[in-house]
Write a structure and sequence with these properties.
The protein is of the alpha/beta class and 215 residues long. 31% of the residues lie in helices and 29% in strands. It folds into two domains: 120 residues, D-Maltodextrin-Binding Protein, domain 2; 82 residues, D-Maltodextrin-Binding Protein, domain 2 (3-Layer(aba) Sandwich). The chain is built from eight helices and eleven strands. A hairpin with a 5-residue loop joins strand 2 and strand 3. The chain binds adenosine monophosphate (AMP). GO terms for molecular function: ATP binding; ATP phosphoribosyltransferase activity.
Length: 215
Amino acid sequence: MKFDAPITIALSKGRIFNQSLPLLAHAGIEPADDPDTSRKLILDTNHEQVKLVIIRATDVPTYVEYGAADLGIAGKDVLLEYGGDGLYEPLDLKIAQCRMMTAGYPDRKQNNGRLRIATKYIKSAQRFFATKGEQVEIIKLYGSMELAPIVGLSDLIVDLVESGNTLKANGLVPLEHIADISSRLVVNKASWKMKHGLVMQLIDAFRDAISQPTT
Ligand code: AMP
């Protein structure tokens, strides 16, 4: 690919960064540093025009909507919470796949009152229980949701489940499926217009990488 305009891509480190590397490589982009060992927040790449900004996963849609990054890679869980229509979401990258589920104790006694749900996914949880017509109380947490039922803070949690090992290690089981989650490519609306050729080339390269059989 030829990069004839500056392009900034917002990514979070860890799972999404690691799983994005083969997609970026397919578009000919190689980061100059590893965010796990470098403290740099802006990573150079092998192309002078292409920069990667390494930020919190929940900040990726904000950076992209406001044009601080042209493109970003964000989990569907994050995008569901972010909401709105301030950015384009043209491609499911099929990486960091998991499920958003309710979870709790397998032998939990039915509670006649309002169920308490601990989660960081407030909007998704609200929507899910509203669709079921259940009145629940949602408690916002920022992490370690599995702890909430154990210490009696909530009846259930809403969290992401991949292997199920985290739930199992805490005596919990997945209960109801809310959504299939994977990472999506998001694009700033102005960049979509102003850098259309380049954005389309990147989308094509990522789409091509996803369609390759994994070895
Ligand atoms: P697991 O034990 O494999 O079911 O993974 C569950 C833990 O990893 C939970 O703490 C989740 O919040 C987190 N997790 C799993 N998949 C993802 C993902 N795709 N993105 C972010 N967090 C995830």
